[in-house]
Design goal:
Layout: H1 5-25, H2 31-56, E1 64-66, E2 69-71, H3 73-91
Antiparallel strand pairs: 1-2
Helix pairs in contact: 1-2, 2-3
Length: 100
């Protein structure tokens, strides 16, 4: 979508606006759900950072060199959040089956 940055900005902004309020509706009654919730917080923080870059600068600023690649803080937050969300999901215990 390099030739259509307005679409990328719009979709990014919409997903961020929809995703951030979801944090307040996520349960945090167990360790696994708290880990998932914090994972989502990191994903949304990284997404917000990238969205603000797209809206204000019209491109995402990459400024953290790691070997031959360059990353930004938003990307690192999204990666850490995805790992946390996955870890929380894997730690969740399956619901007990109801006895009929």
């Amino acid at each position: 979508m390099r030739n259509r940055p307005e679409i990328v900005r719009t979709v990014s902004a919409l997903l961020t606006v929809i995703g951030i309020p979801m944090v307040f509706f996520m349960p945090d009654d167990s360790l696994s759900s708290k880990i998932r919730k914090w994972g989502w917080v990191f994903i949304m923080a990284g997404g917000l950072s990238n969205t603000l870059d797209r809206v204000i600068r019209h491109y995402v600023v990459d400024y953290i060199p790691m070997g031959k690649y360059v990353y930004n803080l938003g990307d690192l937050a999204i990666g850490a959040g995805a790992a946390g969300f996955l870890a929380g999901s894997l730690l969740e215990k399956p619901a007990e089956k109801e006895v009929q």
